[in-house]
Amino acid sequence: MNRPLIAGNWKMYKSIDETVNLINTIKAGIHAATDVDVVVCPPFTVLAAASEALRDSRIDLGAQDMYFETEGAFTGEISPLMLKDVGCRYVILGHSERRTLFKETDELVNKKVLAALKFSFIPIVCIGETLEEREARRAFEVVKQQFERSLANLDPEEMERIVIAYEPVWAIGTGRTATPEQAEQMHTYIRRLLHEKCGEEMAQKVRILYGGSVKPDNIAQLMGKPNVDGALVGGASIKAESFIQIVLNSIILESQEEQKK
Ligand code: PEP
Fold first, then answer.
1. Is pLDDT above 70 for 184?
2. Is 232 in the pocket of ligand 1 (CB under 6 A)?
3. What domains can you pick out in the chain, each with its CATH number?
4. Which residue among 45, 117, 182, 237 is buried most deeply as judged by most CB within 10 Å?
């Protein structure tokens, strides 16, 4: 099984002081949890402070978005070079809030994914259906289309370096989590799409995170599913206690590991 990954998407929250405090508390709280990879993705304005606070820690830094050009007249955008410079290793791409509120298309997400890989980032590529699409029984079709278009033109070696986040839009920030069974069903499907694209060995190596109202009390059940490799956490990642507890609860107990077999 893949090493678990818990990533926190801080969205548009936190000042510099709050960032340093939150990171210091998280660092202390997850000190003993060495069997899980942890990433925090604060807003651009506090990345430098976060990078400094994370120095000598095993928590990685990620950004919430990135433009695909290296530099130029792109007012308001942030380039891969800038994110490298500030110490980011991960970048969230194609988050549903960017797709919905800022009209990002799969084609744009794809350009960003290719640029992120070129600059050796680990892109966390978000895909997921809306409630309307799920109720119309189009969830699998929508996820397949986003998968194929957002990940077009990636060779197998590049596919191995990405992380996929399945985030049903109806579960983001709503308190309405997908059941572990619903998550597993879609993760299994995404694993199959990976298999078709790059073969079984590679498909097994790609981490598939679940995102959508993950909390300390539902993470263990989600992680108990064979194809759930971790979580992308929004609201609960900006409070130290809940994020620490999610990280700690994500580590699979031996009994759950047995169930996965
Ligand atoms: C997210 O923003 O990626 C997310 C999953 O948010 P929340 O955990 O608040 O639903």
1. yes
2. yes
3. 15-246 (3.20.20.70)
4. 237
